[in-house]
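C-alpha cells in:
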C-alpha cells in the first residue's frame, strides 16, 4: 500500500495548558484506550507524571510569555500504514530539528483510534537553557520541507505539503454525498479537504466525548481546542 505522511501544526488561539494537551493525547479520560505508545524526549524521569510536572515547572520559569508555551504537532500516515518505532522516533526528531527545537522537552504519543495511524507531539516552547519562548520562523514551511526528505528516506509517498491556509482560502465544506469525490481530489492534488481532516483526525475524539456520560462542556471545548476547531 502506498504511504503518505501529513504533518499538521495545530495553531492555538490562546495560552493553552500543557497538562490539558498531555491529558488529551494520553487519553486519560478513557484509560489510554487509543494510545499505542508514549515517549518523552529530553526529560529526566522515568514516569509520566514526574516528567509532566517537570515540563510544567520549566514553563513556569518564563512568566513574561503572552502566547501559548506549548506547540502541538500531528503526524498522520496513510490508512493501514504503521511505521516501526525507530522510524517514528527518527521522524519526530528530524521534524523538531528542522525548526531548531530538537533539544526541547516534549511528549510524543501514537494513536490507533482512527483509520489513519498518527502521532501527537506536545512540545514545550520554552528553551531549556535560555528559558525564552521559541517561535520558529516559517515553521510550517520548514516542517513541510523536512517531511518531503523524510518521505524519501523512509520510502513514503511524496505529498505536495500544501499550506493549511489553502483550506481556508478554498472556503468549501463537502457534505457526505460529495465525500467520495473530495477524496479523489485530494489524492491527486495532495490537499486535504476540511471534511476529510475532521473525519480522519477529530471526529472520533468528538464522538467519544459526546457519548461519555462523565464528559462535561469543558471536555468538549478541550477536544475542539486541541484540534483548533473552536
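Residues out:
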Amino acid at each position: 500500500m502506498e504511504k503518505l505522511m501529513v504533518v499538521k501544526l495545530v495553531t492555538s488561539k490562546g495560552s493553552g495548558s500543557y497538562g490539558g494537551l498531555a491529558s488529551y493525547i494520553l487519553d486519560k479520560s478513557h484509560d489510554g484506550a487509543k494510545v499505542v505508545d508514549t515517549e518523552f524526549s529530553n526529560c529526566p524521569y522515568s514516569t509520566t507524571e514526574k516528567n509532566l510536572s517537570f515540563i510544567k515547572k520549566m514553563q513556569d520559569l518564563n512568566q513574561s510569555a503572552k502566547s501559548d508555551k506549548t506547540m502541538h504537532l500531528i503526524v498522520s500516515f496513510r490508512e493501514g500504514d504503521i511505521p516501526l518505532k525507530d522510524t517514528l522516533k527518527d521522524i519526530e526528531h528530524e521534524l523538531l530539528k528542522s525548526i531548531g527545537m530538537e533539544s526541547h522537552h516534549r511528549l510524543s504519543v501514537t494513536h490507533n483510534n482512527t483509520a489513519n495511524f498518527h502521532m501527537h507531539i506536545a512540545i514545550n516552547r520554552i528553551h531549556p537553557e535560555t528559558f525564552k519562548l521559541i517561535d520558529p520562523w516559517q515553521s510550517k514551511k520548514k516542517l513541510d520541507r523536512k517531511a518531503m526528505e523524510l518521505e524519501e528516506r523512509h520510502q513514503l509517498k511524496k505529498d505536495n505539503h500544501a499550506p493549511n491556509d489553502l483550506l481556508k482560502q478554498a472556503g468549501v465544506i463537502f457534505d457526505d454525498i460529495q465525500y467520495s469525490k473530495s477524496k479523489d481530489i485530494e489524492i491527486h492534488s495532495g490537499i486535504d479537504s476540511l471534511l476529510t481532516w475532521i473525519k480522519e483526525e477529530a471526529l472520533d475524539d468528538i464522538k467519544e466525548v459526546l457519548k461519555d456520560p462523565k464528559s462535561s462542556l469543558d471536555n468538549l471545548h478541550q477536544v475542539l481546542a486541541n484540534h483548533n476547531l473552536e
